[in-house]
Amino acid sequence: MEDTVAVEYECEGRDAVGTAAWRILENYAEHADDDILETITRRLPIALPDFPALAHETVNIGILYENADAAAQAFGYNRLLCLPPESYITNITLWHELGHVAIRVRHERGEDVSKTSEEYCSIFSVARMPPEAIDDDRIPYLGEPDVDRAEWPRICRAALEYREERGPNSHYIKKAEQRLGIAE
């Protein structure tokens, strides 16, 4: 099954609206608990609009196998998220995995993104989250912030701006961790 959602993005300096789609693959649909499947299909149309790079893309949802060493997994080049069929993932994990796909799309377009850094992906993803969607005390690969959750997206956006102004080797991750109050 495939569903779509409107995604706002910028095209040649003008605001535009595109469509992002998601498809639940058979292997996931067959193995996923009904309530897990329902939460994923309910949350995807909320999360996808936060990733303008995914306008005109289809994200596939597949199964995360039991021996995987992660809460979820993304394969950006295949536009694939592998999710556990029998357990819930947090919103922060869902946004993080969608972030991997969006980063891959932006990389393919020639944009300056760090396509292999988990820390960059976490900052990139949290920067796009509405504060009310944050449902975990930790940011993947960064740690547990000491500041209010409502501040996380703003701090992460500032870190991305810092990286854009000063370059990818500017210690923007360390700046984000410091502003988030994450202890070393």
Task: Give your account of this protein's structure.
This protein is α/β, with parallel strands linked by helices and 184 residues long. Helices cover 39% and strands 18% of the residues. The chain has helices at residues 26-31, 34-47, 91-108, 118-126, 152-166, 172-180; strands at residues 2-11, 14-24, 58-63, 73-75, 80-83. It has a five-stranded mixed β-sheet with strand order 1-2-3-5-4. Strand 4 and strand 5 (80-83) form a beta hairpin. The longest helix has 18 residues, at 91-108. The relative contact order is 0.11.
Spatial gap, N to C terminus = 44 Å
Strand count: 5
Based on secondary structure, the structural category is alpha/beta
Largest beta-sheet details: 5 strands, mixed
Beta-strand percent range: 15-25%
Oligomer: single chain
Low-confidence stretches: none
Number of helices: 6
Helix content: 25-40%
| Gyration radius, in Å | 16 Å
Strands of the widest sheet, in order across it, are: 1-2-3-5-4
Helix-strand topology string: EEHHEEEHHHH
Write the topology of this structure.
Layout: E1 2-11, E2 14-24, H1 26-31, H2 34-47, E3 58-63, E4 73-75, E5 80-83, H3 91-108, H4 118-126, H5 152-166, H6 172-180
Name the features:
alpha/beta, 39% helix, 6 helices, single chain, 184 residues, five-stranded mixed beta sheet, 18% strand
Describe this structure in a few short sentences:
With 184 residues, the chain is of the alpha/beta class.
